[in-house]
Amino acid sequence: QVQLVESGGGLVQAGGSLRLSCAASGRTFSTYIMAWLRQAPGKEREFVAHITWSSSTVYADSVRGRFTISRDNAKNTLYLQMNSLKPEDTGVYYCAARKEYSSYDLWGQGTQVTVSS
């Protein structure tokens, strides 16, 4: 079983950058598809990006070209580099994990990102 702990959130001005990290415990981190999802106030949780064990990536249209997801399997850590942040990027960012052909069933506690205009 993998446990996930996010860090790196905070308050930043529009146009700024943040890097989120997700530390995973457990020896099978490299076998999971890892993702970032976010939830803005009053809205449903939405997909941001995912990365497979072979580092193949998929991004939501709203963040493509601004955000970069990456993973370091040796450190059991997932990252999200967020550049050119916009106020609409504000929300709680969650790290999640799943096996292939499964739904996301492992979640971190979330980290708050607030982008001021």
Order of helices and strands: EEEEEEEEEEE
Determine the strand fraction and express it as a percent band: over 45%
Find the structural class using helix and strand composition: mainly beta
Q: What kind of sheet is the major sheet?
A: 7 strands, mixed
- Number of helical runs? 0
Report how far the terminal alpha carbons are from each other: 40 Å
Q: Could you tell me the number of beta strands?
A: 11
Helix content: under 10%
- Principal-axes shape call: globular
Average pLDDT confidence is 95
Low-confidence stretches: none
Radius of gyration: 13 Å
Structure description:
The chain has strands spanning 3-7, 10-13, 18-25, 33-39, 46-51, 57-59, 67-72, 77-82, 91-98, 106-107, 111-116. With 117 residues, the chain is mainly β. Helices cover 0% and strands 52% of the residues. It contains no helices and 11 strands. Strand 4 (33-39) and strand 5 (46-51) form a beta hairpin.
In short:
With 117 residues, this protein is mainly beta. It has strands spanning 3-7, 10-13, 18-25, 33-39, 46-51, 57-59, 67-72, 77-82, 91-98, 106-107, 111-116. Strands 2, 4, 5, 6, 9, 10 and 11 form a seven-stranded mixed β-sheet that branches. It has a four-stranded antiparallel β-sheet with strand order 1-3-8-7, with no helix packed on it.
